[in-house]
Amino acid sequence: MLTLHGISKSYGDRVLFADAALQVNTGDRIGLVGPNGAGKSTLFGLILGEEPPDDGRVVRDRGASIGYLPQESAPVGDETAAEIACAIHPDFVRLLRAVKAWDAGHPEAASHPEDLHDDLHERFHELGGYQVEAKAKQILAGLGFRPQHFDRPARELSGGWVMRAHLARLLVQEPDLLMLDEPTNHLDLESLLWFQQYLQGYPGAILVISHDREFLNELVTGIVEIRNRQLVRYTGNFDRYLAQRDAADAQQLAQFRTQQKEIAHLQAFVDRFKAKASKASQAQSKLKQIERMERVEAPVGDERKVGFRFPQPPRSGQRVVWLQNLHFAYGTTPVYRGVDLEVERGERIVLVGPNGAGKSTLLKLLADKLQPQRGERGLGHNVTVGYYSQYRVDMLRPARTVLQEALDTEAKVTEQAVRTLLGSFLFSGESVFKKVEVLSGGEKSRLALVKLLLSPPNLLLMDEPTTHLDMGSIDALVLALKQFEGTLVFISHDVHFIRTLANKVLHVANGTLTPYLGDYEFYLQKTKALSARAALTAGSAPEGKAVKAAAKGPAPAGGKAKGSGSGTASSKPADARSLDRDRQRQQKRLQQQVEKLEAQVDAAEQQRRTLAQQLEQPEVWSDGPRAEALQREFAAAEAAVQRVTQQWEAAALELESLGRG
Predict the structure, then answer these.
(1) Do 387 and 463 have their domain in common?
(2) Is residue 625 over pLDDT 90?
(3) pLDDT band at 581 (very low <50, low <70, confident <90, very high)
(4) 610 and 533 within one domain
(5) Residues 403, 490 within the same domain
(6) Looking at per-residue confidence, does 543 or 405 come out higher?
(7) CA 2 to chain centre
(8) Can you tell me the distance from the alpha carbon of 282 to that of 274, in angstroms, rounded to the nearest whole number?
(9) 22 CB contacts (<8 Å, ≥6 apart)?
(10) Is beta strand 348-352 parallel, antiparallel or unpaired with respect to 504-509?
(11) Mean pLDDT of 162-188
């Protein structure tokens, strides 16, 4: 479908690609990764023909169509959200309006005289007709639009919602190659889950840039990394790419060190005997041997690591913040009725639950940014609160440079250390001298995050802190928060971020807070979640112990209050009771099978991790037969993990289906 032959591209002295190659075939699902500035967006521009390569060719199959979603959308006019989603052809929206006017008995409303011709409907149906509009609305709904917003003018929408409309247009269009640049930035969790599932069944090829590891893990079957000005391809999802890359780096490092020792040995002979007539010819031979060697390069250093020790806040009391019998409502809409919560020093709590459940509201109540109608919010001894949300952007001073703003901190850090941290959050080189007033919203958010890390309070409340961050910046933030000695309560849709940091999960739904006294893996096990991301928006938390339910008022709409029931004995006929017993036996059998398979998955993953650790040891690669044997064992372990995981997923789905029945 698409082939890049020997592509080279430079900007002045900066070489992005040198004789790079890539093949994209029908059905490929490829994630494009690399550090900031490596050339990901440039590669997209070369494929799209927006700029030519310095050398090489970009070859596309005749008739193959390409659809592209950039990070930022173009300005919009009078079109509605539905019309943007329907714009699969330059003429389609105009024809749609004309056909609707004609069908309504107002052909004079057509904006173009040619739309009064008899073939109006024929041309409209050639392009897909009303089926296009129906599909567009279905996809808009999946991306979070409500029906009443379909016909809302796009100029009244935020940039994020306009991007969703353009994303819907691409999905309606179904190009042969779908190119997406950070497509999940503007999606909430439920829309992201829908989008992820939709792409899994997409008929064309996909090439995507994303900082969302879970998204890449669930979607892609291959990773292309921009490294050393080349396009290096790996099979599997993002986690498999990391394992393969680390193993390849270990092998390359071992080969590099072995060669360096050999060169040093040969050079020592040359230096010692080159002046002796009896040994001069041998010394010259060894010198030529050195020159003929095909040099092994040392592996590229890990750009994700930040050499910086983050300042630490003063120690707080054991009891950090609490809510007691708290009631809160937006107008007449109740969110919490009599809720209790206590957070202790050192806890790292992630808030999970469906959209609209009140997670951000809870965070604002803890931060004292919202005032409850009843109840108490209290702070413990020596507690200082930092709330990371968009309001922090408003505290930046527009006339200052990025560097000046970052240096305005009570922390005792050098300018070089601050510049190192700024670089890890995508402010490098001359960009540190940009004025705050010219920064984009994402850049301001990153700068506010840098300031927070340089002088952190001992209670951090963070709402989606990884938004606008690339993988390197997320790793820098993870490193800072792992070092952080205070207390953290946060909301995130980044599963990697949550898994790395959270030591407690608090499920929020229907005014009820349900704690899980363990990390995210513990929460997944207890809730029997089918996927790590789906568990973030689960509407119920069946095995947790609720702190306090919203049972003081009416039961939530569409369901009974917790613990409610008729209190009457069963009056089912015998055949129905027999069916129930059969169902229960089948459920018990399936439950045992799921638990057995879970244990097998754990064992297989442990075997894979053990082999991966062995392959990371440089000395392994100096023993060729041993390295080959370990590689075969690792491949077998990978296959075992996939096989057992598929069996577990099938059993879990069957169990869930039986429970619904």
Answers:
(1) yes
(2) no
(3) low
(4) no
(5) yes
(6) 405
(7) 26
(8) 8
(9) 2, 3, 4, 7, 224, 231, 233
(10) parallel
(11) 92
End position of a domain, from candidates 137, 166, 195:
166
151 assigned to some structural domain = yes
Task: Annotate 548-604 with DSSP letters as a single string.
Answer: --STTSPPPTTSPPTT----PPP---HHHHHHHHHHHHHHHHHHHHHHHHHHHHHHH
Q: How far is residue 86's CA from residue 465's CA, in Å, rounded to a whole number?
A: 34
- The answer to whether residue 443 is domain-embedded is yes
Residue 606, number of CB atoms within 10 A of its CB: 12
Instruction: For 22-38, write each residue's pLDDT tens digit.
Output: 999 999 999 999 877 78
Are residues 325 and 405 both part of a single domain? yes
367 and 435 belong to one structural domain: yes
Containing structural domain, residue 162? 81-166
The pLDDT-based confidence of 141 (bands split at 50, 70, 90) is very high
Q: How many domains does the chain have?
A: 4
| N-term to C-term CA, the chain | 45
**Three-state DSSP state, 513:** strand
pLDDT exceeds cutoff 90 at 279:
no
Pair 578, 618 in one domain: yes
User: Does residue 22 fall inside a structural domain?
Assistant: no
The span from the CA of 216 to the CA of 194, in Å, is 15
Are residue 137 and residue 246 in the same domain, yes or no? no
Weakest-pLDDT range from 427-431, 564-568, 614-618: 564-568
Give the SS3 label for residue 15. strand
> What's the count of helices (H) and strands (E) in the chain, helices before strands?
19, 18
* Dist. CA 230–CA 108, nearest whole Å: 58
Least-confidence region, from 56-60, 113-117, 293-297, 510-514: 113-117
Q: Are residues 491 and 621 in the same domain?
A: no
Q: Are 142 and 195 in contact (CB under 8 A)?
A: yes
643-649: long-range contacts at Cβ-Cβ below 8 A with a sequence spacing of 24 or more?
644/597, 644/600, 644/601, 644/604, 645/601, 647/597, 648/594, 648/597, 648/598, 648/600, 648/601, 649/530
Contacts of 309 (CB under 8 A, 6+ apart): 483
In a domain, 555, yes or no: no
Amino acid at 337: R
Res 22: pLDDT? 95
Phi, psi dihedral angles at 204 (to 5 degrees): -95, -170
- Does 424 have pLDDT greater than 90? no
Token pair of 230 as six digits: 């080349």
> Does the predicted model carry a pTM greater than 0.85?
no
3-state helix/strand/coil string of 96-128: HHHHHHHHCCCHHHCCCHHHHCCCHHHHHHHCC
555: pLDDT confidence band, cut at 50, 70 and 90? very low
Tell me the CATH number at 462.
3.40.50.300
Count CB neighbours of 335 within 10 A.
22
Tokens 């897909």 map to which residue? 128
Ranges of H-type helices in 185-315: 189-200, 213-219, 238-273, 280-292
Assign 563 a pLDDT band (cuts: 50, 70, 90).
very low
273 pLDDT exceeds 90?
no
For the segment 525-548, the average pLDDT, to the nearest whole number, is 70
Cβ-contact 400, 388 below 8 angstroms: no
